[in-house]
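Input structure tokens:
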């Protein structure tokens, strides 16, 4: 059985034998490796090495740091197919998607190659009587990244590339589901000339995440994952005095207007809803057609396109998508679909019973398509990361549009200026022109400013509570003291106000 451990101070560490996790082959369902989960002592070792290495790395001038990034970029290009095959074997993405994963990360490494210019400070002579002002950009020290399973190459490189180029040391805690690619990336960084200890990979679970967030020598943390965990990471990291950027899950929706090019729309929906088995942050699983005629025509074309999809294993170059990452992930998607069926959704295509010939024990799914979405259906209000398209017909467009809070919307408007949406305040606005996106933009004003207009307020949880947009004018808020002094921007409501209905 293959063992996957940590990468600390430029060398592999097998890890203590007390705690292990299984790494599956999504194509067959079999266990392909055992992953060592770090102990507190191993994390302390990794951080101590990073602290020692960072002191010397920060003294290296930016030009030399950039040369390491240039060489790392070259090595990524040389080993692209090897990395893609390793990524596909643990995640289940087809080879083309895995190459895209690596390529998107490589583009940020290219950006980091320009670090000598990007880290320049500023100097202002004569800012005041006898006063010159200058600024300098300095590394923080040791920083950390906690990355998700769906992009095991791209997101780690997005995090450690700029951080290391700026002179920081980096502790990477990748997902337990596909841990091998991050270790290989660390190997290539050492080969590119990075001093040992500047990039350490520590495998772990919730226990190690919390230890990272509490550790006094880690100055900043970047996280990508589910919204619930993002909130927890942010709260704990901020409570321990760290800079934290915590990016939670997305739920994207598309609105199809009556004058949309349906052939182009269907092609885009197929790629967005079913590509990479739907395991993308920007997957588009919910489509809202405007008008009965649009819904009927879209459904006909969409079902015809779905019928042409090829399901395969990750090594099948002809497959449009492969399996999902684990059996547990497959079961969670299945539970979301069943909840929708129980609440009245019409399941036009049901891929839950699909078995890929020759790989019956793998985590493959057939495509799914449903209509008539239930209002509190988790598949509509939460990120499922599974290949599915839901067509939800809107009701009462002339008066109001209800949308679950805590979701993201993605709307494709007509490209022609002649058919563009009129302003919300226009008295000649079409009754069918109101959209979830418009509702979202209005409701977002209450999450970016308080009633006084100067205190940021952010939503703290995803809820199935409904947000209704009502056609009544909102009063202009009086400016706060801060706004009068010019310190804060004044936000003005549109002619529609947003109110919560529960």
């Amino acid at each position: 059985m293959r063992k996957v451990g940590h990468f600390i101070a430029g060398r592999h560490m097998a890890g203590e034998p007390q705690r292990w996790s299984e790494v599956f082959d999504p194509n067959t369902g079999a266990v392909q490796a055992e992953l060592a989960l770090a102990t507190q002592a191993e994390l302390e070792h990794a951080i101590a090495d990073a602290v020692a290495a960072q002191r010397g790395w920060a003294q290296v001038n930016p030009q030399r740091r950039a040369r390491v990034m240039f060489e790392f970029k070259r090595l990524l290009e040389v080993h692209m197919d090897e990395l893609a095959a390793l990524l596909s074997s643990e995640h289940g993405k087809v080879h083309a998607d895995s190459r895209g994963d690596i390529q998107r990360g490589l583009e940020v490494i290219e950006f980091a190659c320009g670090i000598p210019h990007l880290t320049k400070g500023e100097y202002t002579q004569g800012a005041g009587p006898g006063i010159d002002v200058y600024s300098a950009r300095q590394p923080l020290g040791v920083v950390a990244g906690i990355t998700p399973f769906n992009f095991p190459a791209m997101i780690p490189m997005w995090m450690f590339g700029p951080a290391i180029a700026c002179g920081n040391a980096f502790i990477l805690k990748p997902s337990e589901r596909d841990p091998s690619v991050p270790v290989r990336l660390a190997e290539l960084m050492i080969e590119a000339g990075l001093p040992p200890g500047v990039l350490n990979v520590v495998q772990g679970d919730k226990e190690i995440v919390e230890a990272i967030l509490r550790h006094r020598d880690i100055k900043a943390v970047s996280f990508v994952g589910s919204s619930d965990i993002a909130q927890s990471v942010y709260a704990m990291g901020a409570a321990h005095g760290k800079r934290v950027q915590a990016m939670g899950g997305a739920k994207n929706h598309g609105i199809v207007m009556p004058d949309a090019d349906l052939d182009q729309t269907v092609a885009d929906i197929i790629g967005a809803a079913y590509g990479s088995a739907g395991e993308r942050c920007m997957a588009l699983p919910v489509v809202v057609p405007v008008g009965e005629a649009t819904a009927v025509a879209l459904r006909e074309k969409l079902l015809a396109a779905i019928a042409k999809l090829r399901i395969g294993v990750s090594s099948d170059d002809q497959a449009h998508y492969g399996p999902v990452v684990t059996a547990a992930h497959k079961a969670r998607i299945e539970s979301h679909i069943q909840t929708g069926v129980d609440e009245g959704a019409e399941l036009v295509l049901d891929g839950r019973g699909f078995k890929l010939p020759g790989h019956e024990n793998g985590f493959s799914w057939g495509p799914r398509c449903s209509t008539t979405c239930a209002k509190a259906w988790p598949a509509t209000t939460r990120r499922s990361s599974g290949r599915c398209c839901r067509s939800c017909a809107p009701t009462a467009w002339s008066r109001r549009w209800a949308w679950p809070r805590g979701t993201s919307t993605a709307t494709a408007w007509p490209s022609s200026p002649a058919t563009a949406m009129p302003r919300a305040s226009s008295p000649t606005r079409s009754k069918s022109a109101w959209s979830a996106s418009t509702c979202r933009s209005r409701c977002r004003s209450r999450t970016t400013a308080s009633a006084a207009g100067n205190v940021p307020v952010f939503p703290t949880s995803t809820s199935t509570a409904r947000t209704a947009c009502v056609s009544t004018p909102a009063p202009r808020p009086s400016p706060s003291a801060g706004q009068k002094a010019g310190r804060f921007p004044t936000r003005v409501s549109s002619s529609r106000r947003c109110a919560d209905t529960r």
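Residues 53 and 471 are 60 Å apart (CA to CA). Residues 393-477, 480-502 have pLDDT under 50 and may be disordered.
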